[in-house]
Design brief:
Length: 627
C-alpha cells in the first residue's frame, strides 16, 4: 500500500462524504423540527437522480444545461416534499410518532412503483458532466475531476445552511422549533408553514444529493433503501438535528470505508483479514461504538419530548366475554382449516404464512407496545432463529425437534448480548442501535460462505415425514396460538405490569425500587426468543433460508404489522400480521404495481385509523359501552 493509494482513497472518501452529507443533512433538518423519522427520504434521493437523468436527455449536453439540470431536478423534488408534507404528513402530526413513520414507509412503496411506472426496471446511466470528464494526476495515480467538484460542494452547502440557520429570522425559528415546538407556536409562529418549508428544504437537499450522482452511478429502483440506511447512520452518529454533526459523521464514516478499501487483505497474527469486506458493515460498527459511549451522537444533545407526550398510555383492559369467544372461534378456524383443503387447497399455505407473521409481530409488539422499546433490527433474531435451525438440521445432523429448539436459544443469546447495550438508550437512538447490531449479524451471515452458504443461503430444510403437510401446518398453528396466549398472560402478570410502568415513566419506576434496566433487558430477551421461534418455523415452512431474512426490510415488515394493527392493543400484532400478509399476497397477484396499491391502503388506514385497525375497533367498542 503506497502513499499515492492512500491519498486517492482519502479523496474518494471525501467525495463520498460530501454525497452522504447532502442526503443526511436534509433528513436531520426534517427530524429536528417535525420529529418524523422519514423513511421516504431515500425515495426523494432516488427520484432526484431519475429526474436529473430525464432532464439531462435534453439539457445535459452543455455546461450550463448540466448544472441547470441539477438545480431543476432538486427544485422539483423540493416541491414534491412540500406536497407530501401538506397532503399527507400534516394530517397525522397528532398521531403517535410511530404511525408517522408508517406513513413514510407507505410513501416508499408508492414512490418506488411510481419510478417503475415512469422509467421502467432497467438501470439508467446518465452523461458525464460537460467540462469535467477527465481526471487529474495524484502522485502517479488519477482522480476524477468531477469528484473534486463534489468534494467542494459539501462544505459550500454546509456553509450556506449555517448562514441560513444562524443569520436569518427563518433560521432562528428553525432552531427554536428543534428546542420547543409548542412554545414557538404559542409565540405566534405559524407551525404549518414552518414545517412545510423545512420539509421542502430537506427534500431539495435529498434531490440535490441524488441528482449530483448522475455522472457517477446509474439510476435504479434499489437506491431508496440503499441510501436511507447510510443516511440514518450519519444523522444518528452526528447527533439528531445537528448540521455540523452530520458533516463530521459523514467524513468519518466515508473515510473508514475508504481506509478499508485501501488496506486490502492484511495478514494479522497469521490470519488473513479482508478489510474491503468490512465496507458492508463498518459504519454500523462505528455507530454502535458511538451510541454505547455517547448516546446522543458526536455533536448531538438529548432529545426534548413534546409536551403532549408526557402522559402515560391507558391501562390494558382484560378481554370481555365476547372478545374471548371471538378469540376461541378464530383459533378453532385456524386449527380446522386443513379440513377445507379440498375446497380451498391453498388456504393452509397462506394461513401458515399469516401465523408465522403473527408470531413475529407479537414478538416485536412485546418489547415495543408493552416495553416502549422500538427496534429497527428485529430481523436479527428472526434470521438467527432461522439460521440456527438450518445449521443444526443440515450441518450438525440434529433431528427436527432438537433443531427447532436451537432457534429460540440462539436468538435469545443474541438478544441478551445486544440488549445489554440497547436498553441503555431510548427512542430513535435505541432503534438505530438495534439496526446496527442487525446489520452486523447480516454482514457475518452474508460473507461466511463456508458456514452459512453466503449469499446463496441454505436450502433443503424440510419437515421430517412424520410432521409434514397438514401435520406441520397444525404444529405451526398450535405454536402461534400458544405464543399469543403466553404473551397475553405475561402482559397481565407482575412482570408485564413492571414492563409497562418502565415504559410510561422510567424515573418513577426507578423511584419505586424497580431495576429498570433489568426489566427492560428481560423484555428484550423474551421478544428475541419469540422472534427466533418465528424464524425457526419459517425455515421449515419455506425449505431454506437466505440473508434476506436478516435485512432491514424484514424488520420494517414487522414494524408495519405492529403499527397496522395498533401498538396500544394486545390484539394489534395479530390483526396487523394477518392484514399485512393478506394484503401483500392479494395485491401481488392482481397488479405489477402492487407496492403502490399496498402503500396507498396503508396511508388510508393511517389517516382514517391513526390508532391502528385493532385500536380503532377498541375505540368504537368503548364508545358503545354504557358509561
Amino acid at each position: 500500500m503506497t502513499l499515492a493509494a492512500l491519498l486517492v482513497q482519502a479523496l474518494n472518501g471525501l467525495a463520498e462524504a460530501s454525497s452522504l452529507f447532502l442526503v443526511a443533512v436534509g433528513l436531520s433538518l426534517i427530524f429536528g423540527v417535525s420529529r418524523i423519522v422519514n423513511f421516504a427520504h431515500g425515495s426523494l434521493y432516488m427520484l432526484g437522480l431519475y429526474l436529473a437523468w430525464t432532464l439531462s436527455q435534453n439539457w445535459g449536453g452543455s455546461v450550463v444545461g448540466f448544472w441547470a439540470t441539477m438545480l431543476a431536478a432538486s427544485l422539483l423534488i423540493g416541491v414534491v416534499g412540500a406536497l407530501v408534507e401538506m397532503t399527507v404528513l400534516r394530517r397525522i402530526y397528532r398521531a403517535p410518532e410511530m404511525f408517522q413513520l408508517l406513513a413514510t414507509f407507505a410513501l416508499v412503496l408508492v414512490f418506488e412503483d411510481l419510478a417503475l411506472w415512469l422509467w421502467g426496471p432497467e438501470d439508467l446511466l446518465g452523461p458525464l458532466a460537460p467540462g469535467l470528464e477527465g481526471s487529474v494526476p495524484v502522485l502517479g495515480r488519477y482522480f476524477p475531476v468531477y469528484d473534486l467538484v463534489l468534494i467542494a460542494i459539501g462544505p459550500l452547502v454546509w456553509l450556506g445552511l449555517w448562514l441560513l440557520l444562524n443569520r436569518t429570522h427563518w433560521g432562528r425559528q428553525i432552531r427554536a422549533a428543534t428546542q420547543d415546538r409548542e412554545m414557538l407556536g404559542a409565540l405566534g409562529v405559524n407551525p404549518a408553514w414552518l414545517f412545510t418549508s423545512v420539509f421542502a428544504l430537506g427534500a431539495f437537499l435529498a434531490g440535490l444529493a441524488g441528482a449530483l450522482q448522475l455522472p457517477r452511478q446509474p439510476a435504479n429502483l434499489g437506491l431508496d433503501l440503499a441510501v436511507i440506511g447510510d443516511a440514518f447512520v450519519v444523522v444518528v452518529v452526528g447527533g439528531m438535528g445537528s448540521i455540523s454533526g452530520a458533516a463530521l459523521a459523514a467524513v468519518i464514516i466515508a473515510q473508514l470505508k475508504a481506509l478499508c478499501i485501501a488496506l486490502g487483505v492484511v495478514e494479522i497474527l497469521g490470519v488473513q483479514v479482508a478489510f474491503p469486506k468490512l465496507t458492508l458493515v463498518v459504519e454500523f460498527l462505528f455507530m454502535a461504538v458511538v451510541l454505547v459511549f455517547r448516546p446522543w451522537g458526536l455533536l448531538g444533545k438529548p432529545l426534548t419530548l413534546p409536551r403532549a407526550a408526557a402522559g402515560a398510555e391507558a391501562p390494558l383492559i382484560p378481554a370481555g366475554r365476547m372478545a374471548r369467544a371471538l378469540a376461541v372461534c378464530v383459533a378453532v378456524v385456524a386449527l380446522g382449516l386443513p379440513l377445507l383443503s379440498g375446497v380451498l387447497p391453498y388456504a393452509t399455505v397462506i394461513a401458515q404464512d399469516m401465523l408465522i407473521a403473527v408470531i413475529f409481530a407479537v414478538s416485536l409488539h412485546f418489547m415495543m407496545g408493552l416495553g416502549g422499546m422500538v427496534s429497527f433490527g428485529h430481523a436479527a433474531y428472526f434470521g438467527l432463529g432461522a439460521y440456527g435451525v438450518a445449521l443444526a438440521f443440515k450441518s450438525l445432523g440434529w433431528g427436527m425437534a432438537a433443531s427447532l429448539l436451537a432457534a429460540p436459544v440462539l436468538a435469545g443469546v443474541a438478544a441478551l448480548l445486544f440488549g445489554w447495550f440497547c436498553v441503555r438508550l431510548a427512542g430513535v437512538y435505541l432503534a438505530m442501535l438495534t439496526l446496527a447490531f442487525a446489520q452486523i449479524v447480516w454482514s457475518v451471515v452474508y460473507q461466511w460462505d463456508a458456514v452459512t452458504g453466503g449469499s446463496n443461503g441454505m436450502i433443503g430444510v424440510w419437515p421430517e415425514p412424520w410432521l409434514s403437510g397438514n401435520a406441520w401446518y397444525g404444529f405451526v398453528a398450535v405454536v402461534a396460538i400458544a405464543v399469543v396466549w403466553l404473551v397475553r398472560r405475561l402482559a397481565f402478570s407482575r412482570f408485564g405490569l413492571a414492563l409497562r410502568a418502565v415504559r410510561d415513566s422510567a424515573l418513577r419506576a426507578d423511584a419505586l425500587g424497580m431495576d429498570v434496566r433489568r426489566v427492560q433487558l428481560v423484555g428484550f430477551v423474551i421478544a428475541g426468543v419469540l422472534a427466533g421461534v418465528a424464524g425457526g418455523l419459517f425455515v421449515f415452512s419455506k425449505g431454506g433460508v437466505s440473508p434476506e431474512t436478516l435485512m432491514v426490510g424484514t424488520s420494517v415488515d414487522a414494524l408495519v404489522m405492529v403499527l397496522l394493527g395498533g401498538v396500544q392493543q394486545l390484539a394489534g400484532p395479530v390483526v396487523g400480521g394477518v392484514a399485512f400478509t393478506a394484503m401483500r399476497d392479494y395485491f401481488v397477484g392482481i397488479t405489477e404495481y402492487w407496492g403502490a396499491l399496498f402503500g396507498a391502503v396503508i396511508l388510508l388506514i393511517v389517516m382514517v385509523f391513526p390508532q391502528g385497525i385493532a385500536g380503532q375497533f377498541a375505540r368504537w367498542s368503548a364508545a358503545r359501552r354504557p358509561s
